[in-house]
Amino acid sequence: MNNKLYKLMNWPAIEEIVFSESDDPHNILGPHVAGSSTLVQTFQPGAKKITLVLQDTKQKIEMEMADEEGFFAALVPGKKIGSYMYEITEADDSVKKVADGYRFEPQITRQDTERFQAGIHYTVYEKLGAHPMTIDGIDGVYFAVWAPNALRISVVGDFNNWDGRANQMRRLWDSGIFEVFIPGVKAGENYKFELKVKGGLTYLKADPYAFRQQLRPDSASVVAAMDEFKWEDETWLANREDFDIATAPMSVYELYLGSFKRPEDGKEYDNYRDIAPALIKYVKEMGYTHVELMPVMEHPLDGSWGYQVIGYYAPTARYGTPEDFRFFVNELHKAGIGVILDWVPAHFPRDTYGLSNFDGTCLYEHSDPRKGFHAHWGTLIYNYGRPEVKNYLIANALYWVEQFHADGIRMDAVASMLYLDYGKNDGEWVANMYGGNENLEAMEFIKHLNSIIHKRNKGVITIAEESTAWPKITGDLDDDGLGFDLKWNMGWMNDFLGYMSYDPYFRAHHHGELTFSMIYNYSEKFMLVLSHDEVVHGKATLIGKMPGERKDKFNNLKAAYGFFFTHPGKKLLFMGQDIAEFDEWNEKRSVQWELLENPEHEGMRKLVKKLNELYVKYPSLHEWDHTYKGFEWLNSIASEQCMVAFMRKSQNREDTLLVVANFANVEQEFKFGVPYEGSYKEILNTDAVEFGGEGRVNKKAILTEEEDYDNKPFSLTVKSAPLSVSIFEYKKMMVDTKKPAAKEKTAKATKTTARKTTTRTKKTTEKK
Predict the structure, then answer these.
(1) In the chain, fewer beta carbons within 10 Å around the N or the C end?
(2) Could you list the active site residues?
(3) Which structural domains are found in the chain, ordered by start?
(4) Full-prediction pTM beyond 0.85?
């Protein structure tokens, strides 16, 4: 090495590079002005010879080896040398040409890092992670990761033989972010980050912001572009802005993608593209308005169903690529079907290649296990008080909405986030600054999330799975609420399924479990749920919970669905339950579609389809879900008869529906007061032959009687089949005085006949 070049070398810094301990490799690698010349240095582990090729002049300059591990340097005349390449001769005498990634400025600005440190960089995923790009005509991938306590970080992957010496990253000022641009890397290549932490421990981590991950048991991140898909759902997105969750119908089909449809070619899973048409056909046929997908984010354990996430930004590779998933959502939107995604910001697994102890410290989780560990699930709890962690999660929710066009986010396990003592005994948790058990940091995180989702994406909804009586889950943020659009009504689900599981003979003693939900119905904006949680782990399926012989089980479940669809609240039903599966669900099997060859199961499917149809068609079943004006008990105290009657209403009285539910296993006649005079025509009876029943229906419209009953001006007497629900459409009694005389007489005669009939019915009732 010539003396001038030798004197220019920073030997301590070179040693840092060679021993992979540098957090600022750009300080010496790449081109640096040295007087009137340019010093070019590169570290190519294992290289025998390197020639610097100047692109503008085609000049070739042989570089001098400064360290036999592969450190080379050259002094080039002039302060600007333009573009250049390295011609590298490897140990096996093979030759390759590569561009120098250390000649480029950071693609992340100080403004980016300041926003990230404040927790308000809502598209930070566009900066962190792996991003294919072209810089000054050079194609490659820009890598960036947040790991403030690491001593050194390198990108390792297929492109550098997983050698942590080859592509060391630069720490950006005080941001805790490391970055590097690596020319020649392409989409589809596997990579991880190699971190060296205090104490000298070196290990590999998957990219927290990776857009793709390998399928388990492999755990590498995969380079993927994010802007290649051509969307065709503009009409859906435009209409979504006018979607009003308070008044719109919303019937959700919850599913696990791997169980809806299994491949016929021996593969383990179908592709998103193959699932889409089959799912669309079924959902449209059944009349559901939305689907809710159990987590599609990458997860290592099948048995977690996606609720223990490793790759928060990566659609699971079980069903294909991110582009395949975009196709899936796009097709559902084109078919008029909304897509809701389950999302898990409450906890994450301890897998060593994931977020756990990411930079040698508890970066994403609390360091105190009393705040950072979930004993119930063996998982770690996010540190919601750290702005960068909140930013990671908030940007992630926005990522699924804005990059994958999700119409809603259903947040899992909200109660575990809100309570510091959730699932913990005394001494296992730490109180907040006021001595309470509320997680104040999680509260602020949730409020921030809901605020920004609704601000940036009009019409997108957020749903909370919250199982306690925490107040104002769906309350306005301005009124100290958490700002969710809907809350899963876990109380109704537990009470109602408990009531239905009793033999009808004993239901009279549990009548309050049937009616209690209406006492608190308007405290939140509720969604009624019969979800996957109720049909697993020994709980039995919905039909399996029903008492009695086989016939009674079907009748009970049909009555349950009748009540479910007519009770106030948006709806969610888990797959397989609308065809009355007897076997509990598990992630290893498909929906048992073969059951539909049996008339009983096909009858159940037809009933759910009809209920969906009525639910969407009649505004009274959805328009006033969240206001007391939409519901009126007509009789809620007939516990001995195991019967209830109520009205569902909307702004238009003509849309009023009357619902009569008989949860006794005997045919009964039920009399109750009604507020409106007219006729009530049965439009659905769960005992109808088409649904597998015996056809004990009310074929003719029932006229009201002119008598006060239960503080109502009119009364009605209805016959009800055992274990059934009937829905009646109200029609006002009308006489048009503007008709010709002959027609007036006909109308008068009709009214007189109706009055006589009412009188006879009244006398008969009095005799009884």
Answers:
(1) C
(2) 412, 465
(3) 3-103 (2.60.40.10), 110-222 (2.60.40.10), 246-350+369-617 (3.20.20.80), 621-767 (2.60.40.1180)
(4) yes
